[in-house]
Amino acid sequence: MMPSINSSKLLLLVYFLWYISSKNCNSIIILCRRFMPFLILSGRLCPPGIEGTLFALFMSINNLGNTVGSFMGAGLASLLGISSGSFDNMFMGLAIQVFCTYIPVLFLFLIPKEATGVSAS
Fold first, then answer.
1. Residue 3: pLDDT above 60?
2. pLDDT (tens digit, 9 = 90+) per residue, 68-107?
3. pTM, full prediction
4. Residues 45, 48, 53, 59: is their CA dihedral positive or negative?
5. How far apart are CA 53 and CA 37, in angstroms?
6. Which residue of 26, 30, 36, 41 is most buried, as measured by CB atoms within 10 A?
7. Cβ atoms within 10 A of the Cβ of 82, count?
């Protein structure tokens, strides 16, 4: 005998499917918007004619960075003893993650002033 699906369960299923789909789309849109200023700046700095190659290179570096970051996050969790049964050092892990997020700010001086549109005076 087949279990019956009443309208409230069907409505809940439709809501969950909509939520999962929109969350995935929104995360992709946010990722693209976050990456766009970097691509525009690199397009201004690169020689004409190699924008596509530079874009492919940056996408490859981005994917490599995501993979290495995932492995480093797993290693950090293992090092701090964070597991599915123990969250004792979770605050320390989050603090390290937030600190490492701001490390690239230290390298902003390497971007030429004329490429950013900011006057050098």
1. no
2. 988 999 999 999 998 888 888 889 998 998 898 899 899 9
3. 0.57
4. positive
5. 18
6. 41
7. 19
CA 64, 67, 70, 71 dihedral sign is negative
Cα 94-98-100 angle, rounded to 5 deg? 115
The amino acid present at 31, given as its one-letter code, is L
pLDDT in the model for residue 2: 52
State the DSSP H helix or E strand holding residue 11, giving kind and residue range, or none if neither. Answer: helix 7-45
Q: Which two tokens mark 110?
A: 């390497």
Question: Per DSSP, what are the bridge partners of residue 83?
Answer: 86
Tell me how far CA of residue 64 lies from CA of 43, 69, 111, 116, in angstroms. 21, 8, 22, 26
What is the per-residue pLDDT across 53-71, written as a single tens digit (0 to 9) for each? 888 888 898 889 889 988 9
